Amino acid sequence: MSDQVIKNYCTIENCFAFKLPPRTGAGQYSAKQWGDHVWQGTCKMVAKGDKGLIILEDADGMFAKSPVEIDTILEGVVDSSRYFVLKAIVSGGKKAYIGIGFGDRSNAFDLKSAIQRFQTILKAEKEAKTSKNEPVVDLSLAQGQEIKINLTNKIKKTSRPGEKKSKKVGKKKSKGKKESVPEDWVTF
Q1: Among positive and negative, which fits the CA dihedral 78, 115, 21, 36?
Q2: Which long-range contacts (CB under 8 A, 24 or more apart) does 90-99 make?
Q3: Are 42 and 56 in contact (CB under 8 A)?
Q4: FRET pair for 107, CA 20 to 30 Å: which of 40, 71, 143, 174?
Q5: What is the pLDDT of residues 87-144, one digit of tens each?
């Protein structure tokens, strides 16, 4: 029995998968050229330990899965922020590039954020493991050693917070200037 827990980073109910046309040249894909979707279902980003996975599934079971690693990047398309190209393992174990898309821009953002969050955790764990191997430096003072700190006040003395400044009592009116607000009024 494994002691690792499966973490669900996001679940998006309405996801579409597309068969990609052949790429022309070195340019990016365009979602306009994909045509109608070939699958519709749920997209999940899950992780167990240091293994991440994007799973596309529906009521019939898993349609495709794509591993998420520390350097995985969702390839975007030129004409939309809701569609991506995903290197997936489809049913039968074949590897293929498929297009995935979402009806709402916030869902696409959620998937990208989930991948980033997982990768950030992986990087932090990797850093923690490498820092354990570094020798610990003793920065404490030796017995009898002292530190002297000179604390001089070089700021001009002004009124303290909470002290009321004395004001002249009497009303002066001058042309072109606004009257001052009485002290008991609340101003913002």
Answers
A1: negative
A2: 90/63, 90/64, 91/62, 91/63, 91/64, 96/64, 97/20, 98/17, 98/18, 98/19, 98/20, 98/64, 99/17, 99/18, 99/19, 99/20, 99/29, 99/31, 99/34
A3: yes
A4: 71
A5: 998 777 888 899 999 999 999 999 999 999 999 999 998 888 877 666 777 888 888 8
Range list of β-strands (E), the chain: 6-19, 39-48, 51-58, 61-68, 75-76, 83-90, 95-102
Question: Tokens in use for 13?
Answer: 């109910």
9 backbone φψ class: left, alpha, beta (φ>0; ψ -120 to 50): alpha
Three-state helix/strand/coil letters over 100-142: EEECCHHHHHHHHHHHHHHHHHHHHHHHHHHHHCCCCCCCCCC
